[in-house]
């Protein structure tokens, strides 16, 4: 028995798959204030990007906040305006960011 070796296959890298935050909800809490909360995503070095819009669809632009917490308070909001919110997770591995899909949207009417 002789051993025969073939060529090595190309190395492929496994990238982290960041889970989408679940349980997202938004609500008005006090005058000119909206709150959001969601469930924690597994993994280390995870942050959350919070997005806000005044319409349910369309481009909301850049995140309004980045946090390591599973909640966010948005202050100085216009009373009676309907604000939509959503969140996504970002995990940093070796200096590179990996993003989850966006959470479901929810809305709040601040007083």
In short:
With 111 residues, this protein is an all-beta fold. The chain contains no helices and 8 strands.
Radius of gyration: 20 Å
How would the global form be characterised? elongated
> Number of helix segments?
0
Taking pLDDT < 50 over at least 5 consecutive residues as the criterion, the unreliable ranges are none
**Helix share bin:** under 10%
Walkthrough of the structure:
With 111 residues, the protein is mainly β. It contains no helices and eight strands. Strands 3, 4, 6, 7 and 8 form a five-stranded antiparallel β-sheet that branches. The protein has a three-stranded antiparallel β-sheet with strand order 1-2-5, with no helix packed on it.
Element layout with pairings:
Layout: E1 25-28, E2 34-37, E3 46-53, E4 65-67, E5 71-74, E6 83-93, E7 96-99, E8 106-108
Antiparallel strand pairs: 1-2, 2-5, 3-4, 3-6, 6-7, 6-8
Task: Supply the key terms.
111 residues; five-stranded antiparallel beta sheet; three-stranded antiparallel beta sheet
